[in-house]
Amino acid sequence: xxxxxxxxxxxxxxxxxxxxxxxxxxxxxxxxxxxxxxxxxxxxxxxxxxxxxxxxxxxxxxxxxxxxxxxxxxxxxxxxxxxxxxxxxxxxxxxxxxxxxxxxxxxxxxxxxxxxxxxxxxxxxxxxxxxxxxxxxxxxxxxxxxxxxxxxxxxxxxxxxxxxxxxxxxxxxxxxxxxxxxxxxxxxxxxxxxxxxxxxxxxxxxxxxxxxxxxxxxxxxxxxxxxxxxxxxxxxxxxxxxxxxxxxxxxxxxxxxxxxxxxxxxxxxxxxxxxxxxxxxxxxxxxxxxxxxxxxxxxxxxxxxxxxxxxxxxxxxxxxxxxxxxxxxxxxxxxxxxxxxxxxxxxxxxxxxxxxxxxxxxxxxxxxxxxxxxxxxxxxxxxxxxxxxxxxxxxxxxxx
Length: 400
Hints:
Helices cover 30% and strands 24% of the residues. It is built from 12 helices and 20 strands. A 6-stranded mixed sheet has the order 3-2-1-5-14-13. Strands 15-16-18-17 form a 4-stranded antiparallel sheet. Helix 10 runs antiparallel to helix 12 and helix 11 packs across helix 12. The longest helix is centred in the C-terminal third of the chain and has 20 residues. It starts with a strand and ends with a helix.
């Protein structure tokens, strides 16, 4: 009998479920977009209930396309948009708010207060990260400050925090009826709350941010031969399938592109753009605006670390040209439009819609378009948008 592996890919704009056979060939795939909720300038939310419903749908869709049952799966893993933060009631599974997305800048005031008391690198020695709106810890603090039900539940121990892989794993393994509350080391390393060396929540930082440790998930290896739990038979698989793997999406790309030796690096373009370089089993600090993060950990082995250059807006800029400006009707059209001109006509775009991440870490920055003249047409704007991705990448690589 042929057995299969399933992977949930919960991204910033959509969720996919992919089924692989023993030769790593894709035998089934389904994908579904979810809404982007722009409630104020610089703010971005997702509905975690919608994402869970989409996850159920794409699992069932991929199984149908592959012509198999959940019982044919040997195990599943998950990769996910990182830093996006959700708090929910552990007894009902109801989120207290929409999920705060990694691109959201609403925690700017909290971060500025932390920086005033200790500088932007206040927690970098422990966490490898600057203080930034990018990371999950300040987002948790914001929810606790602005939602009384969440704050009271957190103090009682009735609330759960998770990035999106934690939310999905909890739901898959039973939700309020015994769901497993875990996060892998790569996602935990993006919270600003985990010590890079001990791979444990740092109590001093939790105290500073006022976050009860009881709401946090158990930190586990990225790949674990001891299953964290089994999917519920009443869930989308209709079977008990072991859940035993999780990686943040950019770390998953690093592993998927076989950057398994120190010095090997990858760059991927999605909603944002992320350069990661494997640095081996020791965390390497950066003096050039990059961050130090977990690359992956296999159970019973030393963790592997990476340096990362994080760029918030890449493909999302093309989406903006489509949805906000109406210059194109589908994303692939941007290439043809950009090819209609020889250059950008002197136009440059800095897509700081969520501030600027590496190497600048300026949450107060906002997007600009410069060099406009009456000569400039929509082809020049399309070309400038694509070139902005290249310029941002060069800015990272020149500082490695």
